[in-house]
Amino acid sequence: SYYVPCCLILNVYCGMMIMDKFGFKIIGCQGPSMLPTIDENDNLLIVDCFTPRFVRVPAKGEIIITENPFKPGATLVKRVLHHEGETAEFYSYRERKNVQVE
């Protein structure tokens, strides 16, 4: 008698996991780093997971979502400026140098 509801719940859960991994997901975003494109207050973003995984790499100027390497479990929202292998100029008050993008 519990078999049909359990199968239904399991199918819905599996469908949601597949959609989250390969379709799209909704994430929360807050902070000023992407102003004025994305407001600094709480926002919900719909993230396309299919295109970067199967179709093409993100183009310059597109917005990407990535895991924060300094805060595991936290995400970063950034704009693509350079691709792997390109040379980027790095400016600081002390020095100016070129760096290789990896």
Automatic annotation (TrEMBL):
Read off the InterPro entries from this record: LexA/Signal_pep-like_sf, Mito_IMP1_subunit, Peptidase_S26
Q: What GO terms are given for molecular function? A: serine-type endopeptidase activity
Q: Which keywords describe this protein according to UniProt?
A: Hydrolase, Membrane, Mitochondrion, Mitochondrion inner membrane
Subcellular compartments? Mitochondrion inner membrane
Keyword presence, Plastid: no
Highest taxon listed in the record's lineage:
Eukaryota
Per the record, what is one GO cellular component? Answer: mitochondrial inner membrane peptidase complex
* CDD domains assigned to the protein according to its UniProt record, in alphabetical order: S26_SPase_I
Q: What is its main location?
A: mitochondrion
Asked if the record carries the keyword Nucleus, the reply is no
**What protein am I looking at?**
Peptidase S26 domain-containing protein
From which source organism is this entry? Strombidium inclinatum
